Amino acid sequence: MDYQLPEELRMLRETLRRFIDNEVIPIEREAYDGPEMVPDVREKLEARAKELGIWGVDVPESLGGLGMGLLARAIIWEETGRTIAFPRRKRWIFGPDVSPLLAGFANEEQTERYLKPCIEGKLKPGFAQTEPDAGGDPAGMKTNAVKDGDDYVINGSKRFITGADTADFFQVICVTDPEKGTRGGISCIIVDADTPGVQILRKQQTMMDDQPCEMAFDDVRVPQSNLVGNEGDGFRMAQTWITMGRIRHGAIGIGTMERCLELGASYAKDRVTFGKPLADRQAIQWMLTDTYADLHMMRLMIYSAASKYDDGGDIRWESYMCKYLGDRKAFEAADRCMQIYGGMGLTTDFPIEKLWRDSRSFMITEGPEEILKHALQRHVLNQYG
Questions:
Q1: Is CATH 2.60.40.10 correct for 7-103?
Q2: Which one is predicted more confidently, 21 or 367?
Q3: CA-based nearest residue to 305, from 69, 102, 82, 136
Q4: Which residues are annotated as catalytic?
């Protein structure tokens, strides 16, 4: 099959490439302060995104956005993955943070109360799924919601919740029927951040500069009308979001690999040791060649999966492969690049150390590769056994 991008997506990529190269990479070290983008920088780059016509990427067309498909978003993730300017796990600069759960499953009342204010930039959503005993294994989830009159009463704890300290409301994934578990026993319920019993216990410091939060829900009472979709649909809805997130991982990995090739090849030509440029040494040549081959492989894989999704196909298994291979290959590319630079690769003079740290962390978050491969082996044995 021919995976050449359609003309409009090639133009999108070219526009993004010029924007990233000319306006973002030159300021990437000054663009963020800890886990957050510097407000003035964010405001400036968001204004440029609007000027370039790349705004409201996640917002459905029916609500005034671009409603871009997954392949188009993969192109954006790929290009933004080439720079360390943008926080990897927080909102980007191409429009409001719109949850796929709300955009895809919110009823009319929830759309008016939560989704539209998110689109207008008046509310910030949070997504609360991971727990101390339920990270890659959602079947171990303990946070529960029990009906009491017209309300749900929620109790439990969540961990590694990105942006919880600034969220206005949470989409809480919780158990509503312990007997059914992940097969109809998990639901999604909206909880306002200021609801009595919602507690942000602490921010967790990480090696990636991210500061996710640990939370507690102590007899949190919300109306049953806050249920998103149908009771028991929460796990399925969350997996829709996470499937897209796994494609995002792989696409960011493509950007990381390409940036590492740019940095590595340039340095190898300039750096002279023992009378020769590093580029003349086979060990260095093979590092760059391996990254180049991985880049080509991942690009084909990501584009194929995203195109299939846009055509209405099920990409569960493809997303697993895109995630674990994309994260691993991106980390290997950053590791090779760091090795080529030697001691300079360990410094903050170059973006390599940040690419290295972020890529390594991606191999754990949103599904460790061991769990994804374990799930894939069942599919392989069923298909070929």
A1: no
A2: 21
A3: 69
A4: 366
